[in-house]
Model the fold of this input.
Amino acid sequence: MSISSCIAIRADVDIISARQRGRDLGVELGFPKTDLALIATAISELARNILTYAGEGEIEVAVEEAGGRRGLIIIARDHGPGIADISLALQDGYSTSRSLGIGLPGVRRLMDEFEVTSDPGSGTVVRAMKWH
Amino acid sequence: MSVNGRGATAPKLNSAELNSLREFWDVYETQFAEIGAEIAQDAAAHPELATFVGAGDGDEVAESRERIAQAINDGDWADYLADMVAAGSRYAESGLSFSAWFATGRSLRSKLVPLLIDALSEEPERLAEAVRGVSIFIDLVILAVGDSFIDAKERIITEQQDVLRGLSTPVLELRPGLLLVPLIGFIDSERALLLTGNLLEAIAAKRARAIVLDITGVPAVDSAVANHLMQTVQATQLMGAHTLVSGLSPENAQTLVRLGLDLARLNTVGTLADGVVSASSILKAAEARAAEYESSLA
Amino acid sequence: MAIPILKQGSTLIVSLQAEPTDAEFVALQRELTERVTQTRAKGVVVDVTSLDVLDSFATRTLREIAQTVTLCGARAAIVGVQPEVAFAMAQLGLSLEGTLTALDLEDGLALLHALPQVTPVT
Done:
């Protein structure tokens, strides 16, 4: 089983390949259809965030195991401007770019666990987890 | 001394613990069948354990003795612990309480200690070792059984929750194309999600065009519940279905209005009966459209 | 590759296959608007049955397609949103509010057929 794979996000076509990679891994892990759609949608939004805010970055999808459970983790990394106020960015309805309607709070609702680390100037890492 | 979390791998014992176990086993082994019979007798008198006591034929007893010997003398615990793990989940599945199993442990200890005193009264140091061995042995067994007992209980609870959740959000097909969802009890976000998921699947499977979501049995409709319901209604609209919410009490309606919620998106109708009538006419209109379109193609 | 637009009677039908890119979505929006004006189509059906994701961008574009088409004197229906896609969209807070939706292509065509013909005010 492929444990992890990484997709560079530089253009809109990359969103589709990242989504596909996440879906493939989800299928390997035996996720139900509903979860596959949630995972693919979350990847799509995170990849979009990278393009919108940082211009480029990468999406990694990997298998995670803990306490006898397996899950799929999405890690979105970029070296963009970063988020100055993470708690503000996680508030519903908050978005600094008009092109984005939903932002991070929406993605958080799709997944089981969600974590953002960011330093202004050095980029952002979002980790989002779906347990099987 | 420690037993791995799942209870099925060999315990880590230091040489002193091992020595104690062997002292105790040397004595226990000689009286194994007799003690087993006495414990079975005690169990037969126990209200919970009574139904559990099997006669335990000679072969079984011999096999069990062989497995303990294999564990204590050769350090190969796999077979014996596997027995204990199987026992643990069997007890959990049959609804036996864990304290009943503890009672068996106590009963074993009370039989073993006098036996050891008898055999080793001349050698107090070996006696002390052997008595320690009893505790180590019973702890190991209880730990192995307990782990698997709890695992099995958790599994059973999860299964029951799944069944309950399924029951708590039934999606009924009133007639082809018309679904009724009678909601009863409190709606939290988890239940709302489950409802939405079930309903969307049912719309696809039954090709439903109209849905009545009846909330007569939902005691408190606050803004959180209203938001959940709105999300459900909106999700069904994405698939082209019409969802009506019936059974909102006047009190709840007033509360929601005071909270400033825009209830238009809930598509509320009066009673369940009103809901079914409205949904039927929506369905009829959809069927008429389909028929008209079909004839326009001919 | 451009997304094909079929014409049946006075209705344009777009059946979206395998995950259009953002650029393809935007091109489709432009193309559809032009075709509605050229062909004086009265209805547009966008069939998304094969799509297993409709993210914020796709949803917004579909809404915009419906609005633009309406401004051009026709009506648009989005059909075939799959249950798991609808679930993810609802979770994300996405809606197709103000847009006609139907279970599948057949229902969508029937829905558009039944609407009173819109005559644009000139």
